[in-house]
Amino acid sequence: MSHDDHHGVMIPAPGPEFVAHEVAHHFSTPVQEFQAGKLGFWLFLATEILLFGGLFAAYFYFHEVFPETFRVGGQQLDWRLGALNTSVLLLSSWTMAMGVRSAQTSQKSKTMIYLVLTVLGALGFMVIKFIEYSAKNEHGLIVFSELFSGYDEVTGQVAWFKDYHGVMKDVAHGHMFFAIYLTMTAIHGLHVIIGAIAIIYVLYGTSKGRYHAGYYLPVDLAGLYWHLVDLIWIFLFPLLYLVP
After folding, report:
1. In 10 A of CB 170, how many CB atoms?
2. Torsions phi, psi of 102, nearest 5?
3. What is the sign, positive or negative, of the torsion defined by CA atoms of 67, 68, 71, 76?
4. Are residues 224 and 43 in contact, defined by beta-carbon separation less than 8 angstroms?
5. Nearest-CA neighbor of 125 among 97, 93, 153?
6. What is the pLDDT of residues 9-28, one digit of tens each?
7. Model-level pTM?
8. 131: helix, coil or strand?
């Protein structure tokens, strides 16, 4: 490492395919920059856990109040699609971990390959989720065109819950399970999209040679975010698809 009076601390590139990293001016050393970045990101992840913690609390509360509604509602979900999505996310979590490891060892090509595979995993997850949502829309359990329409005066239910085949007619507040299901999976899906965008950003930086053994913090942070997305789904899958 060298100290330049004009540019601050520089982390040299390990080879011609990489570029040197300039430590941010408000940090004295690369280690300080890395540790501050990791700490700040862990604090951010803590707020994400608080967000989903509130959703899980709502799930457990309404599951206790309307157990039969959740039992019948859960039967309307295809656990095979949920299991497939779980497998996709677990595999993408591995490719993300390998991408971080490749960046740590200055293997540019491998890093890019693993990051691309992770983004493809995110795409696959969302495609499967789209198929699942389409089925719910087709059966009137979640009519997306009526999602923000309020209550239906005729049925006394929320407008987006039509239940064309009457699968929930014998339980109280039949829409409740699907309200919880949609809220939790949609917010999680949004996080999948955000995570994919972050990984694409890191992928671009990798293609420019910005990340290597001397500096790989953005890759590491994108990996942490993606692992959290994966971990949250590990809880969502059994609670929504198996427990009810």
Report:
1. 10
2. -65, -40
3. negative
4. no
5. 93
6. 999 889 999 999 999 988 99
7. 0.92
8. helix
Classify residue 23 as exposed, middle or buried by CB count within 10 Å of its CB (0-12, 13-18, 19+): buried
Q: Give the gyration radius of the chain's Cα atoms.
A: 22
Element (H, E) at 18: none
Q: Which residues of the chain have pLDDT under 70?
A: 1-7, 152, 155-156, 244
Residue 150, pLDDT score: 79
Integer Cα distance of 23 and 207 in angstroms: 20
Percent of the chain with pLDDT strictly greater than 70: 95
Instruction: Give the model confidence (pLDDT) of 149-175 as tens digits.
Output: 877 677 667 889 999 999 998 898 889
3-state DSSP assignment of residue 9: strand
37 sits in which H/E element:
helix 30-65
As a residue count, the chain comes to 244
Delineate the domains of the chain, giving CATH numbers in brackets: 34-242 (1.20.120.80)
Q: Kindly state the tokens that stand for 199.
A: 């990984």
d(CA 198, CA 145): 30
Contact 71, 242 (CB under 8 A): no
User: Is the Cβ–Cβ distance between 48 and 230 less than 8 Å?
Assistant: no
